[in-house]
Design a protein that fits this description.
hydroxypyruvate reductase [NAD(P)H] activity; Rossmann fold; NAD; D-glycerate dehydrogenase; five-stranded parallel sheet; 12 strands; binds (2R)-2,3-dihydroxypropanoic acid; 323 residues; alpha/beta
Length: 323
């Protein structure tokens, strides 16, 4: 009997491709280029499963051309590239990669917070440009981190990881806002206090965004929200572009409405809003919060396990829309 065909949309670890090849005929993108939407759609036709990344949109159009498709396994915890209701209507299982990236992503959130508050990249550029001629008492003075108030918007697993780091490692007072309040034992573990979104904006010294992207969270942070923040505050986005209105953020940074920002994700990435590229008080990184070899390997393996688990054994590990 011929093996089912599975698509892998981007180059991933060869050992994970080899695992998939034990069970499937694998059509893998081995290059560094994204497949165009048309090429992805053509290859999806006749596939039983696909291992995708956030770059491939699985919507009504993509699904209509692939009637044999049974599962899309996203190699990401975020899945805003999936139209889950459309997938459910067409009986296509959606899976993601929760848990395996939580601590690594929280580490990066903290790294970005520290780099932003303490002006790490801005001062490095100054040094590399040969501008450093002497010590001075006020050179690159940044914002205090320890003992300040850490605000978290979105208190899922990664948000809780950031909270634990802030509370236990840096003696920060942690406040958060989320769709629903955490159970008391989780609040105690994170030493976190639930507040309204307005209080979060007004009180945080450092605000970290970890909320999933959806139509409801689109531009959750725009000019009106930024205007509520302290002029000494920083903001860090490791969730998704689109949660922040990048043009409004660039304007707030330029006018010193807030002190600084750290961004790992952007609206329309890999394009970055040109205004963000010209303000000095922002640290910009190319969507790398989960990027360590062990974590990316765990993510690829979990996505592969979902394909094998479902198509071979009928049991996916982390389904988003189980039957
Ligand atoms: C995720 O897992 O959602 C990260 O953003 C990597 O894409």
């Amino acid at each position: 009997m011929s093996k089912p065909r599975v698509l892998v949309s981007r180059a991933i670890f060869p050992e994970v491709i080899a695992r998939l090849q034990e069970h499937f005929e694998v059509d893998a993108n081995q290059g560094d280029e994204l497949w165009s939407r048309a090429e992805f759609a053509a290859r999806l036709k006749g596939a039983a499963g696909a291992l995708t990344t956030g770059a491939e949109r699985i919507d009504e159009d993509a699904l209509a051309g692939a009637p044999g498709l049974r599962i899309c396994a996203n190699m990401a915890v975020g899945y805003n590239n999936f139209d889950v209701p459309a997938m459910t209507r067409r009986r296509v299982l959606a899976t993601n990669t929760p848990d395996v990236l939580t601590e690594t992503t929280a580490d990066f959130g903290f790294a970005l917070l520290m780099a932003t508050a303490r002006r790490v990249t801005e001062s490095e550029h100054y040094l590399r440009a040969g501008k450093w001629t002497r010590w001075s008492y006020d050179m690159f003075s940044g914002c205090e981190v320890h003992g300040t108030t850490l605000g978290i918007l979105g208190m899922g697993r990664i948000g809780q990881g950031i909270a634990r780091r802030g509370a236990h490692g840096f003696g920060m007072k942690v406040i958060y806002h989320n769709r629903s309040r955490l159970a008391p034992e989780l609040e105690a573990q994170c030493k976190a206090t639930y507040v309204s979104k307005l209080d979060l904006l007004r009180t945080a010294d450092h605000l970290v965004l970890v909320v999933p992207y959806s139509a409801q969270s689109h531009h959750s942070i725009g000019a009106a929200e930024l205007a509520q923040m302290k002029p000494t505050a920083t903001i860090v986005n490791i969730a998704r572009g689109g949660i922040v209105d990048d043009a409004a953020l660039a304007a707030a940074l330029r006018s010193k409405g807030i002190a600084a920002a750290g961004l790992d994700v952007f609206e329309g990435e890999p394009q970055v809003h040109p205004d963000l590229l010209t303000v000095p008080n922002v640290v910009l990184t190319p969507h790398i919060a989960s990027a360590t070899v062990p974590t990316r390997l765990a993510m690829a393996n979990l996505a592969a396990d979902n394909l094998i688990g479902f198509l071979v054994n009928g049991k996916p590990l982390t389904p988003l829309n189980p039957e």
